[in-house]
Structure formats: C-alpha cells, structure tokens
Amino acid sequence: MNKSDRLMTCNRDWTGVTILTKKGRHVFVNHSQIEEIRLGYFTVSKIFSKKVTEKIEIRVKGVKSPVIITKPMDWDRFDQYKREISKFASDNKIPLIDIE
Predict the structure, then answer these.
(1) In this structure, what DSSP letter does residue 73 have?
(2) Per-residue pLDDT tens for 28-79?
(3) Looking at residue 1, what is its pLDDT?
(4) Residue 60 near residue 27 (C-beta atoms within 8 A)
(5) Concatenated DSSP letters for 9-50?
(6) What is the pTM of this model?
(7) How far apart are CA 17 and CA 84, in angstroms?
C-alpha cells in the first residue's frame, strides 16, 4: 500500500464515503445506503495468540456482512478515520454506536 492510499475517505460535502477494498478497488457508499456505524473492539486471532484491537464497522443496506476497518490495517491514520466517520455520521444523521 502506498502512503497516499487511504482505507477510507469522506468526500468534500460529507455525503458519502469511499472505501478501499481488499482487492484494491475503491467503492463509494452514499450516506443513504448506510444503516449504522459502530465504533468498538475486534479480536484478531492468530495461531497461538489473540489480540483485541479497535475497529470501525459500517453496515450498508442490502449487504450481509459489514465493512470492517481495524487499527492494524492502518496504524497511522486510524484515529483520523474515527474522527472523520464520527463527523460524517452526525452530519448525515446516521446512528453511531460506540461500544466500550
């Protein structure tokens, strides 16, 4: 991944989110397509260990599995993603669930 690639970007007028998929495709999701956004924790299991990390979960209407972005995916920008997605949710009246 290049330094300029971001996993998630809110557009200029705060009406949509562009998400980079695992296959390297950019997918645009409009605010009306998003059911809810959850901020919480995620357990990453490896062979002999489990680590708990932060996550952003975006539930999109009509899609079974949510979009999940975890802190290890982009350590440097994760806190910025959380701030942006929180502002995006409040501006567009999308339910933001913060799981502590």
Answers:
(1) G
(2) 999 999 999 999 998 888 888 888 999 999 999 999 999 999 999 898 999 9
(3) 46
(4) no
(5) EE-TTSSEEEEE-TTS-EEEEEGGGEEEEEEEEEEEE-SS-E
(6) 0.85
(7) 10
CATH architecture of 8-98: Roll (2.30)
- 10 vs 6: CA distance, rounded Å: 10
**DSSP letter assigned to residue 99:** -
Would you say 18 and 88 are in contact if contact means Cβ atoms under 8 Å apart? no
Question: Taking 80 as the threshold, does the pLDDT of residue 84 lie above it?
Answer: yes
Query: How many Cβ atoms sit within 10 Å of the Cβ of residue 59?
Result: 17
Bridge partners of residue 43, in order along the sequence: 52
The model's pLDDT over 13-28, given as tens digits with 9 standing for 90+, comes to 888 999 988 888 889 9
> Among residues 62, 97, 68, 95, which one has the least CA distance to residue 81?
68
Smallest Cα–Cα separation from 39: which of 7, 91, 87? 87
Amino acid at 74: D
Are the beta carbons of 69 and 55 closer than 8 angstroms? yes
